[in-house]
Amino acid sequence: MHAATDPVAIDDADRSQRLTGIRSLPLVDRVRLLTGATPWALHGLDSLDLAPVVVSDGPIGVRGVDEELTPSAQLPSPSAVAATWNPALAARLGTLVAREARRKNIDVVLAPVVNLQRTPVGGRHFECFSEDPLLTARIATDYVAAAQAEGVGMCVKHFVGNESETDRTNYVARIDERTLREAYLAPFETVVHEGGAWSVMAAYNRVDDGVESAPATEHRHLVVDVLKREWGFDGVVISDWLATGSTVESANGGLDLVMPGPGGPWEQHLLDAVEAGEVSEDVIDEKVERILTLARRVGAIGRPSLPVPGVGDPRGDVPAGLYESAETRALLREAVARSTVVLRNDGTLPLKPAAVHSIALIGPNAVEPFIQGGGSAFVHAPYASLPAEALRDALPDAALTLVRGGSGRRHVPRIDSGMVTTPDGAAGYELALFDVNGAPIGAPAVVDGGEDWNRHVPLEARRARIRARVRLTETGHNRLEVGLSGAHTVRFDGEVVSESSRIASSDVILDSSANHPEGPGRDYEVREPVVVEIDADVQVVDAEGYGTFVRFALRHEATALDTDGEIAEAVEAARAADVAIVIVGTNEETESEGWDRTDLDLPARQNELVRRVAEANPRTVVVVNAGGPVELPWLDDVAAVLWWWLPGQEAGNGLADALLGRTEPSGRLPWTLPAHLADCPVPDAVPVNGIVDYAEGVHVGHRGWDRLGRTPAREFGFGLGYTTWDFRELTPVGWQRDARRGDEFVVEVEIANTGERTGRATVQVYLADPADAAHRPVRWLAGFGQADAAPGQATRVRVRIPRRSFETWDVASHSWKFVSGTYRVHAGRSSRDLPLEAIVDMAEAAGPGASLK
Ligand code: BGC
Q: What is the CATH topology of the domain spanning 417-559?
């Protein structure tokens, strides 16, 4: 352990001069810089000509800071990006995100997430790239490097052990040293070293790495010793929003910036701690130095400040309509088609336009696709290309019938805000707030009826009363529900319909009104107005009122569900059509930040819908619209299955291209698709006595499936595309040194396209250590590469295996150790389809110049 007066030294000729300059600033100014000025902006400082640095969420776009949520280009979700297995495409998407940031005057994008998909039920599964550390690292590194080349910083998150959401601000991720190094820290290390990330976000959870058990925002060992010292990270460590729970421990633990602001545990508290000698000025100055380095990198020094940070004309040469320019549309469309994974195909795909005269387009997600996951990753897209429109454009001569086939939801949808007034008849609902003594805070506000977010809640608020008059517009069935999280009383027309005193810690900042398993509701037959009154505890993040929240949503559906009738209608439509395309999937009730799933079921009666349609039409193509795995019990019983992810704004066009083969859906699964949740190596991440124990060690994802010898529905790396590939020859070439990536062992794989269409192959290379002296995974992904080839064409794909793939973390010496000896190198189409094998003997002195034995 290091004393509090021992900041991290970054060797740099000008450093002492810089530090002297920093020290000459008044302490109060220096400390002020270390907490946000607003939820999304840092403080500026006139004496340094420093404009506020502005941050905003990614990773699928740039939400921006203006409350009215101006549009942002909306990318496919990160797992889709990883499913392309194409770092160059990820880089092009990173460039787009950075240009979107410049357009919105954003300096740092809070992205990407490089946590691993440890369990399929993880709420932010869709926001992560992959279950595999190498695939995650390779995609994230090129995304970050490309974005930062545009002068926009990336904040890589969440450091570390944030693989699940249940009780996420409290649980202790217990991860042994070796597992951390080889699996969960590995992507961060690569993104810092090779991507040169300018900032890293400290996670909500705690981490017990065997050296120290502490919140990630104060984990001195991981943040100071590993990230900053050992890896030489010279960027800013930013707290996750409202994650910081201490003053002295977090300041000495390596955190540089508390977000959001103002308020929180630093500011005056940190000044007091410096004056009391609990935090040294050197520690403060190092943080300031890092923030100024970031400011310099993003151009915030010497730039005029905007009246509202983050709101102004586009910065630089970025066009105002970048989010819908032809170039952006084309890139996103390509990404959707390229990420789509063909899980099964009996030859029905690609569709041949001449043979398709009629299409039945069926399914809840055909009518209302789920194009982005829930939570902080949300961006407001300029438009959504819908499957029906895109297919009509693509096949203008075919008749297309669109049928829902039943709802895919467990709850009714969000209310039409036009139905909501205050009791006095003003448009919107009335929000009254009260302090700890029950005294009203100001006059009640009128808030837009469709809004469930809580930016209207001041810090001193402790209770909220919401009153709304809902005008039911239809006679007959009306279902009215309220979704909320936390302690509450809900009355409909004065009658209590739900009461709860429960305020689980996971409700605070974490949950959302989309997740309301016990959400109160009522059915109404008549069209009289219903007065809804909600009394709710304001959720207070810590004892000092640092962050306050009320969340609720009104939901309404005016027609009684007739699922039997809708399914019957879908079956009839399928029977009458040349081909049935059924789009099933999840929705915002299922996949979001804030909670983990408890099952992998397709919600509602979607499995039944697929089976019934497939019985009616043998040419049934199922499209799965989900970010994380869902069980597909009919997977091998239908003609074709595509995995379409959470595809973003170009959803429909990308899908039409994939269905018709205009762009080959060349995606490969970046995670394992289980047949049953119970088969998964880690079926849940519910803390036990507050601990999430990463007991499976380095055997995360497909490595765990291999170790347990279990058979998934489709393995990691699987994807058929539209052609077939012969894997002919695997040739070990030798070591080379890359300026950015270091020492790499190169192999070449000869493949040939044996099908009838031009296609894109992904060559996957895995290593195995037959002696297994180091107790390694059965096989681990060591490299991959891609090539396009025409029918009959053979090509050679070079795959670079990083030196690290031959190393293990040695717990005795706390260092990486190159493991010499015999390795099996496997190459093939997926983690379980590896026709080629070579044996290489790695000498002790492996590296460029070393000959193979
Ligand atoms: C999330 C972060 C996000 C931050 C700001 C947090 O709840 O965990 O990923 O960047 O909010 O929105």
A: Jelly Rolls (2.60.120)
